[in-house]
Structure formats: structure tokens, C-alpha cells
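Honest question from a wet-lab person: if I give you the sequences of every part of a complex, can you actually get the arrangement of the whole thing, not just the pieces? Trying it with mine:
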Amino acid sequence: MRRCESDHLLGGIVARSRPCRLIAIIIAALVLLPIEASDAGWRPKIFKGSSRHAGPPKRVKAARPAKVARRSVAARPHGTRLAALGPVVLPHSALKPASPTCNPATFRVVVDVGHTAESEGAISARNVAEYTFNLRLAKLITEKLKDDGFAETRLLLTEGKARPSLFKRVAAANDLSADLFLSIHHDSVPNKMLEDWDFEGRKSHYSDRFSGYSVFVSHDNPDFAASLAFAELIGKELKAQGLHYADQYTQPIMGRYQHPLLNKETGIYSYDELIVLRKTRMPAVLLEAGSIINRDEELEMDSPERQNMIAGAVATAVKEFCEPRWDILGPP
Ligand SMILES: [Zn+2]
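Yes, you can. This is the full assembly:
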């Protein structure tokens, strides 16, 4: 994934705050913010993670239009309380969705195949292009979601050179009015960490130093809170399968590829500059399913068992994201 965007994107952020509107939103956010939003272990790290995003303005950004806020409430993990409402009394009906929340039959997930046939991304330890891994896993996830009733799921294949393809993906997802965007990738390491070996008589490169999946979100997505909620569900499901996340992105050795870790339990990182996460108009997550530069993990990622495990975990996460939390809101 590293070769997708990061080389060209730093510095491309535009400030968008509006002071007058901010005050009103801050008041609304303080009234409505569930208690976990300030108590959860990951939350402070979100605001510390990037200096550009430190401080109150980013908290304000969590206030979203009603439709999106409703989905975020629905996606919030069990145990959410509304204690922060304090003395404010809202009619119970005000806490319920105005219309049926998520209907799998109409909920549209766009599963983006990372990279293109022309620009294939990383090369595995055994000289297989990342694009091949991405395409196979994204197809499997798409099939799994359709089998589970998410009939509107779309597999997004993009052509062309690397950077233009990023904007094509965003335009396609926005034109499709997707409800959720998931970009599928497989991981490698910075070139300086590569070691040489011979594979089938050909000089090849590998690094067995790191392994694991990782999940990325961007604070600049218009619905960061929902993006994070979906990322958390993916991380939780992958962890439940016994998989571990790649922790090297916290290490200084990663240089410019170092990213803030938002949740040390589930392996969620912020990667604010990624175009496909910040330009899409719906909640968006990028999944690095595993490392293909690690020789052992490449074999695992090549196995139907691992592919089915990950596809199943992602599908479960989508279902959990979609399903309303009636234990919070009461029966319909
Ligand atoms: Zn990639």
C-alpha cells in the first residue's frame, strides 16, 4: 500500500474550519456526545496522533449530519451509554432512527481492489504482484457479502497509472453513492529493509521481520467516526480469528511510513493523507490484509483457508456495522 499515495500527498491538506458554526456544533457535540466518546481508551490518542489534528476542532468534526450520525450510533460497540446527556431529557422517539436503519438488500458496499493491472503495487517474496492478491481477496469478500444478503455490493476494479487511479476510485465510489468503502491491499516493507534470496533460480527480495494485518482510517474522511467504527469491527473480527496486527508502523524505523496507532488492541492506524480515504464521501477504510514480503505469511495469504477467514471476518464486520443496535435504542 505504501507505494500508492504517500509519496505525493503530504502537505495537501486544506483547513476547513468555520469559527461561528464551530461554537454551535461544539455545544451540540457536548450535549450529545456519549460518555464513551471521551472515556474510550483510543480516543485521546486520536487527538494526539497527528499534530495537525490536535485540539478541539477535530472533536467538532465528529458532529455529522443526522443521517450519518444515526449510522454511527448504530455501529457503536455494545455498552454505549447516554449518561453524558445528564439532565437533558429527550423523548425516546428522538433517539430512534427516523427510518429503518440499514437494510442489507440496499446497503451498498464498494470493495476496492488496490492498485491496477498496469501499476501492480508491491511485489511479494515470490515475485507475485500485490494486485493479484488484492483482486483475489476482494472478489472473495464481494462474493461473501452478496451471499450474506448485501446484494448491492460492488467490486471496484480500476485501470491506469497509480495516482490517477486513486481519483478514479473515489469518483466511482461517490457516483455509486456507496454507503461504505473498503480498499483491499497487501503489505510490504520499505525498500531499505529488503533482503536478497533466490526463489526458483531468480534473485528475489523478502523481509521476514514483520507480519500481520493493519487497518487504516483518515481523520479527513467526512465521516471519520463511522470509518473508525467500521475499522474497529474489522480489527476485532480479525483478532477473534487469532490474527495479529502489524505493529511496525509505530516504530521510528518506518520513517515517513510511521503512523499513529489509534487502538493498540485491534491495530487501527490513522493515515490521513490517503486519497481513497479522505476524498470518498462515505465511511472508508483501507485494509492491509497481511504481509506478502514475509515468506511465511505470503504462503498463508496464498491459502484458501486464510482468504476465507479474512473474507468471513470482513463480512461479519459489515453486518455488525449495518445492524441497528436495538439494545441501545429500544425495539423498533
Ligand atoms: Zn497496496
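Two things worth pointing out. The chain is about 40% helix and 15% strand. Residues 2-99, 325-332 have pLDDT under 50 and may be disordered.
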